[in-house]
Amino acid sequence: MHKKLNAKIGLALLTFVFIATMVVANVIFSGWRMDFTEEKLYTLSDGTRHLLKKIEEPIELRFYFSDEASKAVPALRNYAQQIREILEAYADLSGGRIQLRVIDPEPFSEAEDEAAAFGLQPIDVGTGEKIYFGLVGINSTDGQETIPLFNIDRADTLEYDISRLIYKLNQTKPVVVGLITSLPATGGFSIVQRRPTPAWLAIQQLQQMFEVKTLTKDIEQVPADINVLVLLHPKGLSEKALKAIDQFVTRGGRLLVFVDPLAEMAQADQAMMAGQFPGSKSSNLPKLFKAWGIEFDAEHVVLDALNGLEIVTQNNATVRHPGILGLKENALNSDDVITRGLSMLTLSSTGHFKKLDNASMQIQPLLTSSEQAMLVDSTRMQMLRDPTTLIKDFKASGERYWLAVRLTGTPPSAFEQATKQDKQNTQTSAKANIILVADTDVLSDRLWVQFRNFFGQRIAYPWAGNGAFLINAVENLSGSDDLIAIRSRARHLRPFTTVDALRVAAEARFRDKERELQARLTETENKLSELQKQKPNEQALVLSPEQKAAIERFEQERLRIRKELRQVQHQLNQDIDQLGSWLKFLNIILMPIVLTLMLALLMSIVRRRRHHIMSH
Q1: Which of 172, 224, 464, 553 could form a disulfide with 448 if both were Cys (CB 3.0 to 4.6 A apart)?
Q2: Residue 94 is part of a domain; what is its CATH number?
Q3: Is residue 491 in a domain?
Q4: What's the confidence (pLDDT) of residue 274?
Q5: What is the mean pLDDT of the chain?
């Protein structure tokens, strides 16, 4: 009787201790978070911590969320709780320089009027009530920045979005970016489509982050307030403009250049209006590049079998396009701040750079092709209709081509007759910093972003880091690295690199077999032609035994090679299927077994302790 009573008391004490421990742990560790993601996406980065230390004046953050109206949308409420916790972490780390207010803008309240006045976008989730879900930041000079609507599908960029808002509020003097372009990147009007065209999203983001001034192609001097000069497809620049750019760089100016052997986004109708040949879609700055010790090949496009993206043809067939490149981490310079951490960049019909022997500046590649690459005439790419022909004729050069480079140092002037004042300015200036990119289409929307409707709002969904690359480059050139490390953490596509390697290897074997088959076909046809010439004209249509034997041998050889092709395809599918089966086994079978064994072990320990208590 006493043993049973003691056992009950012991179990009650264990239960009490367990509950008390959980309560105490919840109080003590309530602010603690465990982040098991590979890139620690839900832990505030060092970049954010450094940014918060630089806040000079107090900033007020107002988080507007319709708590009462969102009770029927648990997914939205869970995301709102995550945002609130992150904002609280910002406030805690700021040392009191950030004040956080959480506001529920109830219907017909002053808070709802404020949310609407700040430009926050309400959403309708079908309950008949408006839900506000945004952030407003206000600095000491009444400067305002907003996130009109938090999108749950952009959770991986949440830290960057909040940090960017704080960064802009803390800026006392905006960075001024000069832009010279011959592309419709800033918007315009399409004569062919007869409608206005919006600015590219990358340029819109640039305008949101910096003060962007569009300059003409015949400028005689770069304005003194320009911090960074961006040249996007610099085509048809005047000699005076080239000299102005040269002087800007030799005085230590920061320059970002996008050139292209084939700018696919160049509008033929605008070229015709300008009196130019519509087929010419290349851009180059040979005089400036030569002075800087670099050469751009404006006549060839880089094909890359390893980094080529898969596309869907008009026949709904999926093929790998070696001219549209998806550059992953192995093609990005991990030592440079603007490319470090980006998951993928996509380029199309890109060119390449070469270092000249007389180069006096330091040249560092930022983007490179794989060794499974080759060059093809840009005219062929411009007339290309079937990308499979590129694969059939592909023959890797074994060379890794430079697709983007950074130049640092003191650049010599490209103009021999520099004025005395120019030489004095050059001698007393800081070293220049130049970034060159061999593709202009990289900034176009089609290569990195999709647009979808989110509760009536047009929302951009990036699937590559092209826009981040542009902002990273300008921020770095302007001397600001605060946001780069944060933005680079946002992952986009997570490619199956092992599957890609298997597919590329199989495609290489396919190309070898196809070339072998074509060579044997050509050899047999030549032999048949020689045998045919040996016959009189009246017997030309009659096959000799030698001809019949040659044809039969070729048919047998062709069947053998086709069989080998099928075996290569079968082996490819088998390797990929085996990899998929192994992953399924790990996730569907092995992990539940491990968890079950752990649970069984825990239950066994509990039973033993219970038995030990009851026995005493």
Answers
A1: 464
A2: 3.40.30.10
A3: no
A4: 47
A5: 81
Q: 112: how many CB neighbours lie within 10 A of its CB?
A: 20
User: With contact defined as beta carbons under 8 Å apart, do 425 and 250 qualify?
Assistant: yes
What sign does the CA torsion over 318, 267, 351, 471 have? negative
Q: Does 146 share its domain with 182? A: no
User: Does 77 reside within a domain?
Assistant: yes
Axis-axis angle for helices 74-93, 46-53 (nearest 10): 50
In the structure encoding, which two tokens stand for residue 143, read together?
A: 């400067």
Q: How many CA atoms lie within 13 A of 452 on its CB side?
A: 10
**Could you tell me if 208 and 340 lie in one domain?**
yes
- How many CB atoms are closer than 10 A to CB 524? 17
- Do both 456 and 509 map to the same domain? no
Q: State how beta strands 373-377 and 300-304 pair.
A: antiparallel
Rounded distance, CA 121 to CA 116, Å? 7
Q: State whether 202 and 326 are in the same domain.
A: yes
- Same domain, residue pair 180 and 68: no
Between CA 73 and CA 606 the distance in angstroms is 39
Q: Kindly state the DSSP code that residue 146 receives in the 8-state scheme.
A: E
73: tokens are 């949308």
What is the pTM (predicted TM-score) of this model? 0.62
368 three-class SS = strand
Rounded CA separation 419/381 (Å): 43
Residue 484 lies in a domain: no
The distance from CA 97 to its chain's CA centroid, rounded to whole angstroms, is 33
Ranges of H-type helices in 34-93: 46-53, 74-93
Considering only CA atoms, give the Rg of the chain.
Answer: 32
SS3 335: coil
Q: Where are the beta strands (DSSP E) in 37-163?
A: 59-65, 98-103, 123-124, 130-131, 133-138, 144-147
What the block records as the tokens of 566 is 């099928």
SS3 for 42? Answer: coil
413 — phi, psi (to 5°)? Answer: -75, 145
With respect to residue 15, please indicate whether it lies within any of the assigned structural domains. no
Token pair recorded at residue 265: 């986004």
What would the pLDDT profile of 547-603 be if each residue is shown by its tens digit?
677 767 766 776 676 666 666 666 656 666 666 677 667 677 777 777 778 877 877
pLDDT (tens digit, 9 = 90+) per residue, 299-322? 999 999 999 998 887 777 778 899
Three-state DSSP class for residue 16: helix
Query: Counting Cβ atoms within 10 Å, is residue 596 exposed (0-12), middle (13-18) or buried (19+)?
Result: exposed
Work out the number of other CB atoms within 10 angstroms of the CB of residue 432: 21
CB 273 within 8 A of CB 342: no
Range of the domain at 582: 498-533+544-614
Name the residue with tokens 């305002």. Answer: 144
